[in-house]
Design the sequence.
């Protein structure tokens, strides 16, 4: 008998701290348990939602159907060759703790992704990234269970179809696959990435040599200064994606607004800093009801207490409108919404 619970509170299971309940709720602690759910016709008749660390979600006040909390645990070195270590972690492992564990083993490559909330299993879905590194740069393969057939499939890097904050699992594969384990390729010839000025400055300020452990320390210090701790002030991390625009538009905006922050993407496109756009549009530190944009980082929406999905969506629309009116640039929300 599967231990399913009804009207289960999700408020403490999403980093935004939004008031929410699951109509039905079940913790998944093994692949076999997940496959048992798939074979159950009564459960299959429900709508399913997969919950990891709850760090990139806007939850409805009532999530209909069955919420499966993916709590698969375990991490190990599965292979090694002359060039790299291949490290596998189960989907329910805490992402930050996993990163720090790899560094403690002497394996570099994930340090720039320190202190990102969430779980290992969710990391490829969003192709999480920070300070010049994305999951696509370090992921080797992953295992996922098909939610209709129960098939356990290994996906290669290319099959994941990574893009900026995007992947196959967020597009065509959304709702069809549950990631259960991810394997990372961590190169033995460690190529440190410190090109983001804040990281270089932090390393210099602390007089730290450039290595994986020290880059992680610098990243953690910078993130703690800029970003609120979800345990103290509810948030879902960066709320808006950095918009990618044609170079012609970027250069026109740069002439109008010399302080505009932008980064080259390719020969024809540039990425604009959404946080800068929101700040200059006057929303940094401002509130709308119980939600607002964080006073130290305009890209982060925060819950000052008691917020629901409708509050979040109201502020999202206000900010999108303000940025569109001032810069004629559309910014998109990054978190996934559960209606």
Sequence:
């Amino acid at each position: 008998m599967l231990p399913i619970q009804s009207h289960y509170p999700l408020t403490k299971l999403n980093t935004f701290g939004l008031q929410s309940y699951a109509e039905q709720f079940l913790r998944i602690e093994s692949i076999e348990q997940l496959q048992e759910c798939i074979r159950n016709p009564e459960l299959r008749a429900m709508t399913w939602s997969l919950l990891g660390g709850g760090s990139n979600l806007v939850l409805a006040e009532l999530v209909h159907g069955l919420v499966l909390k993916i709590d698969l645990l375990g991490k190990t070195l599965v292979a090694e060759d002359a060039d790299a270590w291949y490290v596998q972690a189960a989907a329910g492992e805490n992402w930050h703790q996993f990163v720090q564990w790899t560094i403690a083993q002497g394996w570099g490559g994930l340090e720039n992704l320190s202190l990102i909330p969430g779980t290992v299993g969710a990391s490829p879905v969003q192709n999480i990234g920070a300070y010049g590194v994305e999951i696509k740069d370090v992921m080797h393969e992953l295992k996922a269970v098909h939610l209709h057939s129960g098939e356990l499939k290994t996906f290669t890097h290319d099959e994941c179809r990574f893009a900026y904050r995007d992947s196959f699992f967020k597009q065509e594969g959304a709702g069809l696959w549950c990631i259960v384990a991810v394997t990372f390729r961590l190169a033995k010839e460690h190529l440190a990435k410190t090109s983001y000025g804040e990281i270089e400055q932090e390393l210099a300020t602390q007089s730290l040599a450039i290595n994986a452990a020290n880059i992680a320390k610098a990243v953690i210090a910078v993130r703690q200064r800029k970003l609120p701790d979800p345990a103290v002030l509810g948030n879902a991390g960066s709320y808006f994606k950095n918009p990618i625009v044609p170079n012609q538009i970027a250069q026109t905006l740069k002439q109008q607004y010399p302080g505009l922050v932008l980064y080259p993407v390719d020969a024809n496109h540039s990425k604009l800093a959404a946080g800068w756009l929101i700040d200059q549009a006057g929303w940094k530190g401002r509130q709308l009801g119980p939600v607002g944009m964080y006073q130290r980082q305009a890209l982060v929406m925060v819950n000052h207490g008691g917020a629901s999905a409708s509050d979040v969506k109201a502020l999202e629309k206000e900010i999108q409108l303000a940025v569109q009116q001032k810069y004629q640039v559309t910014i998109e929300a990054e978190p996934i919404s559960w209606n």
